Amino acid sequence: MAVLLQIRDAYKRYGDQVLLDGAEASIVDDVKLGFVGRNGAGKSTLLRIMLGDEELDSGEVIHHPRLRVGYLRQHDPFQPGESALDFLMRDSGQPDWKCGEVAGQFELKGRYLEGPVKELSGGWQTRVKLAALLLHEPNLLLLDEPTNFLDVRTQILLEHFLRDFRQACLIVSHDRAFLKATCSQTMDLSRGKLTMYPGKIDDFLTYQEERREHDLRVNATVIAKQKQLKRFIDKNRAKASTASQARSKSKQLERLQTTEIEVDLPTVNIRPPRVDPRQGTAIRTTDLAIGYPDHTVATDIQLEIEHGDRAAIVGDNGQGKTTLLRTLTESLPPVEGSIRWGHHCEIGVYAQHVYTTLPEDQTVLEFLEYQSNADTTTQQILAVAGSLLFRDEHVQKKIKVLSGGERARLCLAGLLLGTYNILVLDEPGNHLDVETVEALAEALLEYQGTVIFTSHDRYFMKRIASSIIEVRDGSVKNYLGDYDAYLYAMNKEVDEGERERNANKKPAGGRAAKASHDPRAEQRDQRRTQKEIKNLERKIAKLDEQKKELNDELLTCSDPEKALELHNQIETLGKELESIETRWCELNQDAW
């Protein structure tokens, strides 16, 4: 196992902000590492340092001599007029057949491969960039928020690509569902320190919380013991007969130390607008067509959304989800047909075109005062601003100096101060960190009004959506199933596309081809596969139970040496579980 990249005693700061404070980590070959941490912790800065685009204040980054880094570029690398195939050939120096073969892994063919690449949506352009990465044959991929603005189908394609990629990856993402599907290990950056954890993101977060709770309990025990010793010392040190005992207890007291527990960073706490629940139809469309003067996106749209519903708009990028939302909110006129909102509907809109066009000369407080009702007090405004991390001097910040994430939170704060009983949200998770997205999900579940929204965050969609509306191939229809059913259908389509490509690669004829069509051989293989799957499931259940027992024991353990031993046993079990679960997934996929 070769170490491809090593970070040693790394220090980096900007003014008063310390990003790296003696950070250390090693990235080895064939490991997929999820890189997590709060917005502003320094993750993107560390990636630039790894790439050599930025310098450390002190410390070093050591590269293996055979390291080949592939970095998913966020900027536009395309030339005017060139096709995706032209770009891939120019960027990689590979022949057209090789570029076409790799592009096929990302469903790039026909006009998507041969038409102007600049006319493709952001998601399709990301597919082109990923194909370009693969053509350079890197042994370490650095991906910075790769799922931003990607539709579900492209996210699934990217997951499948990473699953089959046999080299190392470092993936920065706030999308926990994506990290869980792609990364076997986790690296966390917090308060300048890097923490490596040999397990998936969910296990890491559980361990992190359990470790904190354990330290709190141990500290409580230590503090109680300290008080007991101090009382004994105060009572007995002046007496000649017990002075020696008091001195002994003093030495014991000096050795008793509590574990330092980091104070929690401020968290977002979103309170939804207080509205009265309503019954009946919130919005109805009749023979609606949406689009633009020179291009109709979808026709014959017959939708009906009830009050209290949380309707998720789904579909691939470029199919018209945002066009539909803009038409429903009347910021874009319909091509034909009608839209009818129910009586007394107050509509609040959250969309990129809203939070990128805020009045830049206003302060945070001035903007929120303007957005709120006349009877809202300054104290109420400050409370809402504070819940979204605009506290103290931050409310006097000019909007022009706010980051994308801060502007997005400010728009949310403006919505919360209103009395909107309809919320229309276009990609609310973009530019928000995972804690804010979680807080928003909780608020929307509590909200008594109607929500119409679109999002590429699968975790968010699964939690929120009560109904699904699909925009696809020029039509908009209610999807007959929940979001899990929609994801299943997307995975099936992607898998069938991959099977078709793999089948085309296999040579026709010959003994192997004939054997593959032997029904008796296929039945024997299926029986063997099912038997192995059942054996693996029994092993997984047994190891899960052992791991749970060890975790329970760790939570009540106050002996540091024993706790370390238990932690090591849990890690060993985790690795064994991961190996067995990987094999189980492979067998199930083959069987399916």
UniProtKB/TrEMBL annotation:
Source domain of life = Bacteria
Q: Where is the composition biased (Basic and acidic residues)?
A: 515-530
Q: Where is the ABC transporter domain?
A: 5-216, 283-498
**In the record, what terms sit under GO molecular function?**
ATP binding; ATP hydrolysis activity; DNA binding
**Listed SUPFAM superfamilies:** P-loop containing nucleoside triphosphate hydrolases (SSF52540)
> Per the record's keyword annotation, is Nucleus included, yes or no?
no
The yes or no answer to whether the keyword Nucleotide-binding is present is yes
Recite the UniProt keywords alphabetically: ATP-binding, Nucleotide-binding, Repeat
Disordered: annotated segments: 496-530
From which residue to which does the signal peptide run? none
* PANTHER family (alphabetical): ATP-BINDING CASSETTE SUB-FAMILY F MEMBER 1, ATP-BINDING TRANSPORT PROTEIN-RELATED
Its name, as the record gives it, is Putative ABC transporter ATP-binding protein YheS
